[in-house]
Each structure stands twice: as C-alpha cells, then as structure tokens.
Amino acid sequence: MNKQYKNIIWDYNGTIVDDAALAVKAENMVLETYGKPPITLDFYLKECEMPILNFYNKIFDMNSFDFTEISQRFIKYYEHLSHDAKVFPEVKEMICSLSQKGYNQAVISGFESEMLKKSLHHFGLSDYFSFMSGSDDISCKSKSERAALVLKKYGLKPSETLFIGDMYHDLETAAHVGADCILISKGHQGHDVLSTYDVRVLKSAAELKEILLL
Predict the structure, then answer these.
(1) Which residues contact 21 (CB under 8 A, 6 or more apart)?
(2) How far apart are CA 211 and CA 59, in angstroms?
(3) pLDDT tens digits in sequence order for the chain, 214 residues long
(4) Are 24 and 14 in contact (CB under 8 A)?
(5) Tally of CB atoms within 10 A around 158
(6) The pTM is what?
(7) Closest C-alpha to 111, from 162, 39, 46, 187
(8) Is 59 strand, coil or helix?
C-alpha cells in the first residue's frame, strides 16, 4: 500500500483512545446489575463486534432485555470511569506528524456525538481534525451509511482516503465507501481476530510512519 492519500479518517475508541480495558470494566458493572457473571478482557477482544447489539446478543438474551436500558447503563458507567482513559501516545504523535505533513484528518466514530466532541476537546485533539462525526444516539449502530454521507458532504474522494480503525467494522465502513483501510490491533478486537480478514493489520500506530510519512 504505497499510494498517496490526502485524507485520513480515524476511528476513535480503541484506535485513538486506549479504552478497551475500561470498556470491560463498564460492561462488568452492567452485568453485575443484571446478576450476570463478569467477562474477561480476553473474551471481550475475541467476541466484541459492531454494531454493539451483536455483542450483547452473546451475553444477554436480548429478547428478554431492553437494549436501550443496557446501553444507557453502559454509558453511565463508562463516563464514570472515563478519567482513566488515555490517548495512545504513538497515535497522538502520528496525528501531529500527519497534520504537519498536510494530511486532511477527520474522525468518524460510533461514539455518541457529544461525548466524542467532549473527549476530543479533553485530550486536546479537536484542532487536528477538519471534522468529526459521531453517532446521533448511544446505541453504536453501523457507521457505514453515515461515512458515505460524510465523504459526500465534504467532497472527499474514496481513492484518496484511508480509514484507520481497530475493528472489522472499520474495514466494512471503508469498503462501503470504496476507500482503503488499515487496522491496529490495540483496541476492541484482538490481533488474532483481525488477522483473519483481508486487511493490513498493524500492532502499533508507530508502524504508520513507514506507510504515510515517507
């Protein structure tokens, strides 16, 4: 993959922000309220997927539980724990370097819009992105259709656009709009899971230097 990109579209949670372990803590707090046993980080990295309802179907009988209620509980606990979240230092370095090189960068995330905006501001990242697009609710639905609308709105050519994420759904999103994708296996799906797909998988964002900063 040596083509020249102009646009870098980042996923947020698990790609920019190191929060997989935090998400497991929040999920276990949710499970405790329903009297269910906790999950491990290893289980989460193997079984988590987007849309998040697919994941909940693996740990709940969703015919008997309210998805909105579960999502609201998770967001409540996640926000309570969010002070422990940190940006991957190598990712922040890469974002700064790409900005200096003149790349147009943006964030398209399943994270709820206001939470995404607050988090970007908290970590001092807002000024690096030409736009951000978060979900309009807390259910973390598919972002593929939203990505297509966003690229059209901002006039971004798929052939000049690279999506960077941490989950298979980021590959699905890139494929939906006809763009390339790279996944980094430090987020919400493990390397063993991501390596089963036809996509380049990096173990660290630091490896992007050889691809984008030549």
Answers:
(1) 41
(2) 38
(3) 446 899 999 999 999 999 999 999 999 999 999 999 999 999 999 999 988 889 999 999 888 999 999 999 999 999 999 988 999 999 999 999 999 999 999 999 988 899 999 999 999 999 999 999 998 765 455 689 899 999 999 999 999 999 999 999 999 999 999 999 999 999 999 999 999 999 999 999 999 999 998 6
(4) no
(5) 18
(6) 0.94
(7) 187
(8) helix
CA atoms within 13 A on the CB side of 126: 10
Bridge partners (DSSP) of residue 108 are: 133
Distance, in Å, from the CA atom of 177 to the CA atom of 183, rounded to the nearest integer, reads 16
Which candidate, 166, 138, 139, places its Cα nearest to that of 20?
Answer: 166
Structure tokens at 53: 């309802």
How many helices (H) and strands (E) the chain has is answered by 10, 8
Which DSSP state fits 74?
H
